[in-house]
User: Fold these one by one.
Assistant:
Number 1:
Amino acid sequence: MDANRFDLGGGEPIIILDDVAKSYWRETLEIPVLQGIDLEIPRGSYIALMGPSGSGKTTLLNLIAGIDRPTGGSLEVCGHHLNGLDDDELAAWRNLHVGFIFQNYNLVPVLNAFENVELPLLLTGAGRGERRDRVEEALALVNLTDRMFNYPRQLSGGQEQRVAIARAIVTNPDLLVADEPTGALDAKNAEEVLGLMERLNAELGKTIVMVTHDPKAAHHARHQIHLEKGVLDRTVEVNR
Amino acid sequence: MRWLALIWKSLMRSKRRTILIAGSLVLSVFTVAVLQSLLTTLNAVTNNPNSSNRLVVRHKSGLTQMLPRSYEAYLRQQTEVETVCALQWFGGYYQDPRNFFANFASDETTLFQTFREEFGLAGITEAQMKDYLRDGAGCIVGESLAKKNGWKVGDVVPLTGTIFPINPRLTIRMIFKSPKPSDENVLHFHYKVLEEGVPRMKGLVGSFWVRTHRPEDIPRLIERVDRHYANSAYETLTETENAFNLSFVKMLGNIGAIIQGITAAVVVAILIVTGNTMATAIRERTTEIAVCRAMGFSSTRVLALLLMEGVLLVGVGGLLGVLLANLAAGGVRSSLGAAMPFFADFAILPDTVISCMAGALAIGLLATFIPAYAATRRPITEGLKAVG
Ligand SMILES: Nc1ncnc2c1ncn2[C@@H]1O[C@H](COP(=O)(O)OP(=O)(O)O)[C@@H](O)[C@H]1O
Ligand SMILES: [Mg+2]
């Protein structure tokens, strides 16, 4: 494996992709979406994954986050070989290691901010009191303590995304994956969310992989890598 | 928040839809519970354990034909027989023809022994019994019938005959209680009133109610009595009391088949409606389910949560339906109980409640399982892409 051609800084890798490929089949016709992806991402990185629409960014992110399976190659993420886990083990692994941030926030509309953030904690063994402390802590971190009992429809887009971020970090995962997290936000709210993610990386040491096609958003990450027609570009841009 | 709260909130996502579907469940369970209870009540009439050692002897050609009262002597001679009671349906009414209840001219000397379970003799005083036996124009009435008409012991009840051209004025000598409410909607008076008042009834009676010592004796006795009177001027038809009652229930048509048919139709309809509703409710949540699974909810967990939602929905609907049916049963008892005695026993029995609830739960599970299972089979990535 020649992952070192990407200079993402040193340190112990938290994500190791070895010759990862993903294809879809339409009838008998194979449609390759990702090909020969070799990638090592050190713990504590903040990577922006760029590329034109349809280049396979989401597909790659989903593979790293363990909600999709490759058709070739292997992945090791947060110390686990994902290929070797069955669906239930993979689900448990995600709960423990991965926080998800989506373009459309994807909060549960019938739950208030507190309950939305609490949702992934229901799967952990945490008791009522511990869950409350952690939810409050996460909401304080995204500066929404005063909106704790508001429902998604009572929140602005920016606030909804911040609740979603609180939900992503409440289980204290090592890895955050974000697919176009600012895609639905105006410039001001986008800045706020990006600033928050920067803090999660800098202050809490979260490894973040963010898919975006917005160069301004990508500039908030520490490194940018590019995907072109399912193949990783060799150049890495270093922002800071 | 606990799991149950999560399930409840998911269920209340579309209140209107949830209320509508719960409402149709309430109605369906109500309908089925009432119909099935009607069937149970009718079956109880023809499966009365109290009548296990009683026989009815009547004319072979039908209930309007009479038998000689002298047959009683032959019946008594049979070793299996404990006692015999001559009994004739009088068919009179009190004040208003619509105010219908069962009234009989019967042999007062054997009535209480023949029907001792029905009379619940415990509450009756020796004095009342003597009063009735002594007063040829006396009568006895069940407590619920007395209550309904405001009768007390000593009151005179004028009966207007419909089958027989007499209007006896009867003095209430006893008000009896029965273990079963239906047995209290009855009036009996001395057979002599009919025999002496109606010339064509001289020496005749519609039926003999025979009490045997043991139920096992019954088949043999039936056969012997009918054979004895075969080819006589008055041939007999002897049958168990339950069989006799069944011939009345049968007059209502094949109620059992009708009720089972309606029940099946209701079950199928509600299964389709519930299935469709749950499918829509789950489809609307495709993205949400995918998000939960991404966060680490296993397929089994998602399936269980959705199934519990379905079960909670039909559980609440079913419970309300059964409750409503119980209220309705009380109404039926008080409104129809006097006119049709078996309705006085109308009740939603525990067995019916259990099978209605089990049926509702099965419908909820089945209706939810199909869309819920499909939702957990769907790739997470696809669910995340879905709009909604
Ligand atoms: N389920 C699927 N079946 C077939 N093709 C798919 C499927 N999912 C994604 N693709 C294809 O894979 C390619 C990459 O998709 P995606 O990873 O979503 O791109 P990006 O996120 O970079 O826009 C696209 O051409 C898309 O049409
Ligand atoms: Mg994409």
Number 2:
Amino acid sequence: MRDPGFTLTLRHLQAGYGDVQVLWDVSLEVRPGELVALIGANGAGKTTTLRAVASLLRARDGEVQFGTNRLDRMSAHDIVNLGVAMVPEGRQLFNQMTVEENLLTGSSLSRTRPLRRSNLDRVYALFPLLRERRLQEASTLSGGEQQMLAIGRGLMSAPRLLMLDEPSLGLAPTIVEEVFGVVQDIRREGITVLLVEQNVQQALRIADRAYVLESGRIVLAGPGLELLQSAEVRRAYLGI
Amino acid sequence: MVQFVQIVVNGVFTGGVYAIIGIGLSLIFGVMRIVNFAHGVFLVVGMFTTLFFFERLHVDPFLVIPLVVLVGGLLGIVLERFLLEPIVRAPEHASILMTVGIGLVLSNLLLFAFGDAPQIINTRYSTSTWHLGPITFSTALTIAFVLTVVVIGGLALILERTDLGRSIRAAAQNADAAELQGINTRRVRSLVFGIGFALAALAGALLLPQLFAHPSIGPTYTLKAFVVTVLGGMGNVAGAIGGGLLLGVTESLGAAYVSSSYRDAFGLAAFLLVLLLRPAGLFGRSRT
Ligand SMILES: Nc1ncnc2c1ncn2[C@@H]1O[C@H](COP(=O)(O)OP(=O)(O)OP(=O)(O)O)[C@@H](O)[C@H]1O
Ligand SMILES: [Mg+2]
């Protein structure tokens, strides 16, 4: 699984919507096996960054590279086939499909089709509850269960790199703990993780490294625990 | 009583074909979020393709149908790829103008190629019948109905059980999320438009033995397809079956008991009634 060749590199990325530029010169790097957090206030551009990496949004300038592949020139579905998956903000499940159908949508790629059964078992092992609910419509799951399904669905394409956009958003504290536990499990399986979080303290605690995004610019970077101690981060994001 | 049963049977058989048209329109709307104003013209293209293969090239009628489906599918894929894909992200009116335009161009091409005279197809099925007790069945309509059931059943299986079907449903429910699962939504759109065209063309071939084909009848069928889809709930394939049957039976009853010259109006009346009472369609569930 761990291949030294697959580093995600963003170089001088510029992106936006219509006339509004959101990202200004964002550069960052996620190396194989790392768990990297991307934090920042509401509207800083975290989601925009992930969408640009996933090619749901075209970069205006700059490069996104994964291993030797230029992602900014590929379509979103081809990027998934390369091994970069994303669990979007707000879960975005296929609500009128069953739990299992949601999971199966992620494994119709040429690369992952043969691994379908074993990937499904792996996801069910990680989330036993989803197996119990496999024939239930996704819209009938609780918020926490839906988040687990969204993460499970992201794992079905057997990604090398998983991008998670605010997986703890709107969940009860005990469920938030569970989500952070799952993120660490995923990383322990050898999957590289790029984690966007508003839950800054917990994200920095589990991250190897982190980047702080402010109004579309990277303003701080460093090891998670180091940023957790930094006066700037404590003032701006932890209210200490 | 016998007469009533006879009329309902005819209505159900025709309604099955209407369901096919409605399902195509509904699939296209579900995945592409466009209302296809050319849908009825696709049906007419199916009629003339059938006439062409059968009358001019003398292809066996059982071979003609798969050929017509194939031609329809390919035309749909090509039209989508070159005319609709470029305006995927454009405002809604762009797709309205485009599909209206496609319909106009196609029907005028048909006029140019086949002329203005109404045409009928002469097969031995057109007039032959069979009997079940006192009820008489038209052979052509019976074949049409059997094919309809097989095609709708097959389509339902594909949508429910296969990767392609799941990809189509995923793209309809959330296109961005589908892309994030590795689904090529552009390909899904082309395919769905191809399926829609193929189904409409099939419906044209199946209805041909009972109708005069004329290049200008497209809009009537676009309207029928709308009625079927709205009755069943936009984007709801199962609902389109119910909508098609309801329309077929209503038309058949109205034509028999009130006046056959207003056949098309009865469907519209039923449509307005349903919309007044159940705005989300008969089988629709409100979108959240
Ligand atoms: N589809 C869009 N069209 C126009 N502007 C947008 C769109 N999506 C986001 N924006 C704008 O881009 C900026 C960055 O948004 P983005 O969603 O990337 O922020 P974020 O860091 O993910 O915030 P949050 O923590 O609230 O999720 C915001 O100012 C937002 O208003
Ligand atoms: Mg966001």
